[in-house]
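Record filed below.
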Amino acid sequence: RNIIKVFLLIGFMFILVFLNLRYVGTCFIKTKEFIVKDSLIPMSFHGKKILHFSDLLYGSTIFEDDLDYLEKEFQRIKPDIVIFTGDILDKNYNISKESLDKLKNFFNNIPYTIGKYSVKGDFDQSTFDLIMNEANFNILDNEYKLVYYKDNNPISLVGFNSNNISLEKIDNEKINGLFKISLIHNFDYYNQSFNSNLILAGHNLNGEIYIP
């Protein structure tokens, strides 16, 4: 009987942990700030802010009220560069025209001084391109972009498509010696041999792990 009680207790605890991670832990929005120091960062980029966010999964994790909160938070942060690493919608969500317009306005209203950039997530389809293009985001699909600010010393942004990673359009010789930021949705598929000074990724939902 004691053994059965122990197994029931373990099972109950496992269910509680799962419910907390799936339905409680995803209900909070937290802003984390990090300082990046590197000798390759040009002087013109010193003190500049990069806003990185990912996996809105609108329709399951994020809803209209959450977008209002995020918009106010982004206005408070006042970023210079904005980076979104994919998965706007939940894969099972059928978006209405009203919600689509809300998302367009949200992405379009994100403040910036230098540029806005994005890569696709595994759930992103045609809606992603529509929203990103109307909101003036540069979609990086297995390609790089040199980003300048006030002088001729750029940083490089390299964006990977997690669904089909390819290095054919990336001339590594042209970006060697620059401060290199890699953007990818699913870090599990990142090519470790491609050296970067900073990697911004999504998909793990603040701590998701795979158990064999």
